[in-house]
Amino acid sequence: MAASGIDYGWRLQGKTVRLCADRSLMADESAHQMEKALRQMSMEYYVLDRCMQCGICSSACPQGLLHDDAPFSPRNFIQRARLGLLNLSEDELWKCTHCGHCQMMCPYEIPFLEVMISLRNLVVEQGAGHVPVSIRSALASIASGGNPWKADAAQRVAWLQGLDIPPVACEPARKVHLFLGCLAGYDPRARRTAQTAMRLLHLAGVPFEVLADEEVCCGDSVRRVGDLATFARLKQTNKRIMLSKGVHTIYTLSPHCYESIQTLYGWEENQTVRVMPFLKLLFQWMVDGVFALTDAPRGRVTYHDPCFFSKHQGLVDEPRQILKGLPGLEYVEMEHHGRKSLCCGGGGGGFWRDVAKGRRLAEVRLDEALATGADYVATSCPYCLAMLEDASKGDERYAKLEILDIGELVWKGVRP
Amino acid sequence: MSQAAAEKHTVMVVGGGVTGLGIALALDGLGIETLILEKGPSLGGKVKDYDKIFPDFVSGRDIVNELIARVERVPRISCRTGTVMAGLKETDTGYAVSTNDHQRLEVGAIVLASGFEVFDARLQEEYGYGIYPNVINGPELESYLDPHGPTGGRLLRPFDGKPARRVAIIFCVGSRSKRLGNPYCSRICCSYSTKQAIEIMERDPGAGVTCFYMDIRTYGRGFEEMYQYAQNLGVKYIRGRVSECSVLPEGDIQVRAENTLLGKPVQGVFDLVSLSVGMMPCADAACLADLLGIERGKDGFFSGVDQYRAPHDTRREGIFLAGSVTGLKPIHDCLNEALSVAGRVAAYLNNHAG
Predict the structure, then answer these.
(1) What are A's interface residues with B at a Cβ cutoff of 8 A?
(2) Chain A within 8 Å of B307 (Cβ-Cβ)?
(3) CATH number at residue A240
(4) Is the ipTM value over 0.90, yes or no?
(5) Residue B123 class from Cβ within 10 Å (0-12 exposed, 13-18 middle, 19+ buried)?
(6) Which of A29, A326, B83, B239 is the most buried if burial means most Cβ atoms within 10 Å?
(7) What domain range includes position A266?
(8) How many domains does chain A have?
(9) CB-based contact A1 B298, cutoff 8 Å
(10) Confidence (pTM)
(11) Closest by alpha carbon to B151, among B165, B137, B135, B140?
(12) Do residues A268 and A166 share a domain?
């Protein structure tokens, strides 16, 4: 059958792809020019031609669950992008939290997040539109100080001084490293999570070291808001430090750090740095029965999947098995869980945006957690933890929920 | 070890469905003897399970039964059920075929009419087929609407046996999806689903049928009119691909989609959700392609050498294709192909006589 010889448009790569070469149907000449310009500037733009406007992305997008008359719709966004009707100065460009549910569902596998990064890049690096103030300031701070909060780089690990975790002497080859991430460096809540992780490492007898104040932001959110130049610099810095310190295994506390260091740092074959999420180590400890567990804490627990573990990496079973292995807890599941779980709103630069109360994705998530009757919401990402905690603060409804990192919950049950 | 003498046939048709039956009868009309090789236990293929077919609501079962009755009356047609090809060798006069039951056949030409398979809806996990009892697939809905079916033609919820009155039909399940490996349009799902929606509404005007579609492709003669009629009856069409089905405590199914024409999220609760599954090449297509030494396209369906000038010919002489092995088509088109391939086979035999 000759039809089998046709190469379908969406299979092709590069700018030669034109499903409709003559776009003169466009009523407005300026839209036509805009579309042409975007097409020239953004390498990712061509993939939008495959879109058949089925809307499964918009239906899967967690923003559709917000009480919003016109929620963010990837389908609608793509349609306007193709017709040259996007306004890159609008707040809409920054609403996407890169949870990745849309591209996971897309029948034609359109990498929507890459398109987003590419369009944001036009705005951030080439001035094609307006960058929200909070994002601009975070980017400026990371570019100069390696962290998003204009904090002193040296302060990143100052808190480690007072810690009661004595170093374990061992030969360097046995030592693993811990990549703390920006939040653990400067945010008191995330710092507690990091301390707990370090205590668990110590208790399990794993000799470890942190990258100290030389570590800079992993660059995940930087890249996802479109600042590719800064991302490239951060990547270089971190790689240089890891290689100079002879790192062979590095554990990350955040799925965001994990994904960017693991998949985007472009390790050469001879650079044998193994990147692992701390969650996997925790899981291994539980399987091996490394800790003696008590039946504290007691109650019901549910797990909020960070998108960068669940949708991006498919890491969904391990955390559940960890929680089910805690004797005092009954595990319950939220309506949306695993790869279908809902986003906290913190990814893709969402952490740096100001979203009014009542319009936060984290609130939708907390409502689902409440419906399970859980006492604890465990998660494994510092962004998720902060977003969920922020949303629950000062809201009576959520007072009953204790939100914590999965490592902290394990720590509560560990008999020292 | 001595072997029994090979049985001789002029033409062997692989597949005893509506296409295969049509081919045998058409060849008989040209005075050519045929053997039908059928994998299953009986003749009739998938169409014998269809009580009504689109666009004119005649009985598919009646059509097939009539074809079978004629085939059985004709001395020039013989049938073997429960039989598949196991080996193939070229001979001076055509092909020597061995079968799974160790028979040897000598045939002058082979026509492949082994049909299609429906998509396994479990692979599109987000709809919960195989997990939620009230999520069924298109052929199952067909059987619920069939007076000879398991419910005697009553549309009941598998979960509790209560009548289903709020029905959602989700189009393009396992079609038009690169993610699931089936980027093609299955062509007949829009029409068969619309036919099912009409049947539900005609029997129970108080029912509510909602179709979630991407594009309505009612392309054949009378198909578009059928779509118009469905809308007259009150079938609702919502343009948007469903992202999720979830089950509610009473077994009801909640469906989430975007109404892409309004740009608004929609959510609905239904008694029954039917997945309009698309079609795949028949399960043993890869096997058959190897055995016969013929080609398949990227979509997995068989390919002839030239779909314009020699639509039935494969690259191997004396082996021909007909029906849905080359891509999905309505029953009417399959029967047309049966007639045309018979003409092609007759011409081939004529030129290779002796």
Answers:
(1) 1-5, 8, 10, 52-60, 64-65, 70-71, 73, 75-76, 105-109, 335, 340
(2) yes
(3) 3.40.50
(4) no
(5) middle
(6) A326
(7) 133-283
(8) 3
(9) no
(10) 0.87
(11) B140
(12) yes
Distance separating alpha carbons of residues A172 and A156, to the nearest angstrom: 24
Of the three residues A283, A313, A344, the one that is the final residue of a domain is A283
- The alpha-helical segments, DSSP class H, found in A87-128 are 101-105, 112-126
Tokens found for residue B311: 């639509």
Same domain, A246 and A263: yes
Q: Report d(CA A185, CA A153) in Å as an integer.
A: 9
Q: A298 lies in a domain?
A: yes
Domains of chain B: 7-115+282-351 (3.50.50.60), 119-279 (3.50.50.60)
B147–A contact, CB cutoff 8 A: no
Let me know if residue A370 belongs to a domain: yes
pLDDT one digit per residue (tens) for chain A, 416 residues: 333 333 322 222 333 323 233 333 334 455 666 677 677 666 677 788 889 999 999 999 999 999 887 889 999 999 888 877 777 888 899 999 999 999 999 999 999 999 999 889 888 987 778 899 999 999 999 998 888 888 888 788 888 887 888 777 777 778 899 999 999 888 889 999 999 999 999 999 999 988 877 889 999 999 999 999 999 999 999 999 999 988 999 999 999 999 999 999 999 888 889 999 999 999 999 999 999 999 889 999 999 999 999 999 999 999 999 999 999 999 999 999 999 999 999 999 999 999 999 999 999 999 999 999 999 999 999 999 999 999 999 899 999 999 999 999 999 999 76
Pick from A53, A65, A107: which is nearest to B260 by CB?
Answer: A53
Chain B residues inside the 8 Å CB shell of A78: none
Give one DSSP letter per residue of B287-299, joined into a string.
HHHHHHT--B-TT
B180 and chain A: CB distance < 8 Å anywhere?
A: yes
